[in-house]
Amino acid sequence: MQYYKSLATNPAALLSYTSAVVTVIALYLLFTGYGEAFNVGYYLLAISPYMWASIGIGLAIGLSVVGAAWGIFAVGVSILGAGVRVPRITTKNLVSIIFCEAVAIYGIIVAIVFSAKLGNVSPLTFTASHYYTGYSLFWSGLTVGLCNIACGLTVGLTGSSTALADAHDAALFVKVLVIGIFGSVIGMFGLIVALLQTGKAAEFGA
Amino acid sequence: MLSFNVDDGYLEGIVRGYRAALLSSNQYLNLTQCESLEDLKLQLSATDYGNFLANEPPPVTTAVLLEKLTDRLVADFEYLRSNAVGPLAKFLEYLTYSYMIDNVILIITGTLHERDAAELLDKCHPLGFFDSMAALTVATTVQDLYQTVLVDTPLGPYFKNCLSSHDLDELNIEIIRSTLYKAYLEDFYRFCTTELDDVTAEVMKSILEFEADRRVINITINSFGTELSKDDRSKLYPTCGLLYPDGVMRLARVDDEDAVKGVIESYANYRVLFDTSEHKTLEDRFFEREVALNKLSYMSQFQYGIFYAFLKLKEQEIRNIVWIAECIAQNQRDRIGNYVNIF
């Protein structure tokens, strides 16, 4: 009983135990002639491309919004704190929040463009083109989502520094804001790459 | 850094606002040119202090000025403390422990000299209040004090090393104060470097190491000519500074100030402390270096060092204003420039 309890609390032990069990099962199947049962390719093909495409669209908008929200709360809190003594900064620093919001907009653009590619196809007639669309929508969605988390974080944390620098000395505002502007370009990169990835993907229903 | 703003971003903005309100060197020059304390009050009303002396009956004395300045500091700090959560709340609590130690020693000393209990409680620093403070006035021995009052306070663990001293006399009380402060400094150092994030650790490390070394040098110099043995002296040295272990070992054996200077010569950062040009004493140099280190903490964002630095810089500002006020009140303007400029 002590042994199983210690497994639950120690992740390294749990990992090594699980991988040992998996290796034993895999080798058993291999050596008794059932190696073909471990068919990764069949498993992947058995997943409908609708699933890949829809998850991709969900990741595109979901992860982008996480990045944007993270950035907005980081900026907003600093504006509130610094604005107590220096109320003049509150209006000007909303521009940092707008840059964070742009990150969420990239995500929604991608999600709308991708969802236009979804259509009605019977599962018995999935072709290679449908699988291609499914996979490319999934990975593009992931691309734009992760890029936008990074972008939202960047713009948010530098926006927080911008608010504090502006409160200290008004001449610093534009200079520190430029850092955030360069950061917002990261999200743009993600958007462009995602659209390029799905450029050749044909619509479902064709 | 990524989630710092969740709990502590608002207070960081507030503290940076407090820091921006500290008086600059120009404002200090204006204060030095005041003719009387009424003038000083007028000059201060143009700063962030505003009309804080407005309800005081004239004439304004330096005692009243000091009391009101301290009240402002306490109000600012209490605002931070009441809005803090999580590790920041614990950090701010640690900051109050040094004032608690001062209050405990003040009450014990006062009780020994048979002063009035209410008068003693009045003189205590407001940031160091804890609930059972009034019960300290019935102090007889350290064991008694500890078992009735101090074991329940946050200072309880720091008394481990001084429960062995028996009588409460003058020398012993100073030794108790130094032992408590050593335990507190080492505990605070451990807290900052192990339980908080790296940026705070880096900032607080340099500040607390200097504080420890400052204690070492002060204890050494103050112990010349007293009955404190060299062994006892080396037991009072905090171990979290740059001078530990070899500087501390050498300083434990010196007998006069020149020898202290000789030991410190080999430490490049501290060499300038003993530079006696420009009529600056060792104390002045210590304050200057402390102000420089505290100012530096504002260069990093997303760390707690700025809260500690705000407290110390504001205290330095209060010391400066009161110094200038005293020079004006006593009409001794030749040393009015002896304050430490912050910005």
UniProtKB/TrEMBL annotation, chain A:
<keyword id="KW-0375">Hydrogen ion transport</keyword>
<comment type="function">
    <text>Proton-conducting pore forming of the V0 complex of vacuolar(H+)-ATPase (V-ATPase), a multisubunit enzyme composed of a peripheral complex (V1) that hydrolyzes ATP and a membrane integral complex (V0) that translocates protons. V-ATPase is responsible for acidifying and maintaining the pH of intracellular compartments.</text>
</comment>
<keyword id="KW-1133">Transmembrane helix</keyword>
<feature type="transmembrane region" description="Helical">
    <location>
        <begin position="12"/>
        <end position="31"/>
    </location>
</feature>
<dbReference type="GO" id="GO:0033179">
    <property type="term" value="C:proton-transporting V-type ATPase, V0 domain"/>
</dbReference>
<protein>
    <submittedName>
        <fullName>V-type ATPase, C subunit</fullName>
    </submittedName>
</protein>
<feature type="domain" description="V-ATPase proteolipid subunit C-like">
    <location>
        <begin position="55"/>
        <end position="113"/>
    </location>
</feature>
<feature type="transmembrane region" description="Helical">
    <location>
        <begin position="94"/>
        <end position="116"/>
    </location>
</feature>
<keyword id="KW-0813">Transport</keyword>
<comment type="similarity">
    <text>Belongs to the V-ATPase proteolipid subunit family.</text>
</comment>
<feature type="transmembrane region" description="Helical">
    <location>
        <begin position="136"/>
        <end position="158"/>
    </location>
</feature>
<keyword id="KW-0472">Membrane</keyword>
<keyword id="KW-0406">Ion transport</keyword>
<feature type="transmembrane region" description="Helical">
    <location>
        <begin position="170"/>
        <end position="196"/>
    </location>
</feature>
<keyword id="KW-0812">Transmembrane</keyword>
<dbReference type="GO" id="GO:0005774">
    <property type="term" value="C:vacuolar membrane"/>
</dbReference>
<feature type="domain" description="V-ATPase proteolipid subunit C-like">
    <location>
        <begin position="138"/>
        <end position="196"/>
    </location>
</feature>
<dbReference type="InterPro" id="IPR002379">
    <property type="entry name" value="ATPase_proteolipid_c-like_dom"/>
</dbReference>
<feature type="transmembrane region" description="Helical">
    <location>
        <begin position="51"/>
        <end position="82"/>
    </location>
</feature>
<comment type="function">
    <text>Proton-conducting pore forming subunit of the V0 complex of vacuolar(H+)-ATPase (V-ATPase), a multisubunit enzyme composed of a peripheral complex (V1) that hydrolyzes ATP and a membrane integral complex (V0) that translocates protons. V-ATPase is responsible for acidifying and maintaining the pH of intracellular compartments.</text>
</comment>
<dbReference type="InterPro" id="IPR035921">
    <property type="entry name" value="F/V-ATP_Csub_sf"/>
</dbReference>
<dbReference type="InterPro" id="IPR000245">
    <property type="entry name" value="ATPase_proteolipid_csu"/>
</dbReference>
TrEMBL record, chain B:
<dbReference type="Pfam" id="PF01992">
    <property type="entry name" value="vATP-synt_AC39"/>
</dbReference>
<comment type="subunit">
    <text>V-ATPase is a heteromultimeric enzyme made up of two complexes: the ATP-hydrolytic V1 complex and the proton translocation V0 complex.</text>
</comment>
<comment type="function">
    <text>Subunit of the V0 complex of vacuolar(H+)-ATPase (V-ATPase), a multisubunit enzyme composed of a peripheral complex (V1) that hydrolyzes ATP and a membrane integral complex (V0) that translocates protons. V-ATPase is responsible for acidifying and maintaining the pH of intracellular compartments. This subunit is a non-integral membrane component of the membrane pore domain and is required for proper assembly of the V0 sector. Might be involved in the regulated assembly of V1 subunits onto the membrane sector or alternatively may prevent the passage of protons through V0 pores.</text>
</comment>
<dbReference type="InterPro" id="IPR016727">
    <property type="entry name" value="ATPase_V0-cplx_dsu"/>
</dbReference>
<dbReference type="InterPro" id="IPR002843">
    <property type="entry name" value="ATPase_V0-cplx_csu/dsu"/>
</dbReference>
<dbReference type="GO" id="GO:0046961">
    <property type="term" value="F:proton-transporting ATPase activity, rotational mechanism"/>
</dbReference>
<comment type="function">
    <text>Subunit of the integral membrane V0 complex of vacuolar ATPase. Vacuolar ATPase is responsible for acidifying a variety of intracellular compartments in eukaryotic cells, thus providing most of the energy required for transport processes in the vacuolar system.</text>
</comment>
<dbReference type="GO" id="GO:0033179">
    <property type="term" value="C:proton-transporting V-type ATPase, V0 domain"/>
</dbReference>
<protein>
    <recommendedName>
        <fullName>V-type proton ATPase subunit</fullName>
    </recommendedName>
</protein>
<keyword id="KW-0813">Transport</keyword>
<comment type="similarity">
    <text>Belongs to the V-ATPase V0D/AC39 subunit family.</text>
</comment>
<keyword id="KW-0406">Ion transport</keyword>
<keyword id="KW-0375">Hydrogen ion transport</keyword>
<dbReference type="GO" id="GO:0005773">
    <property type="term" value="C:vacuole"/>
</dbReference>
<dbReference type="InterPro" id="IPR035067">
    <property type="entry name" value="V-type_ATPase_csu/dsu"/>
</dbReference>
<dbReference type="InterPro" id="IPR036079">
    <property type="entry name" value="ATPase_csu/dsu_sf"/>
</dbReference>
<dbReference type="InterPro" id="IPR044911">
    <property type="entry name" value="V-type_ATPase_csu/dsu_dom_3"/>
</dbReference>
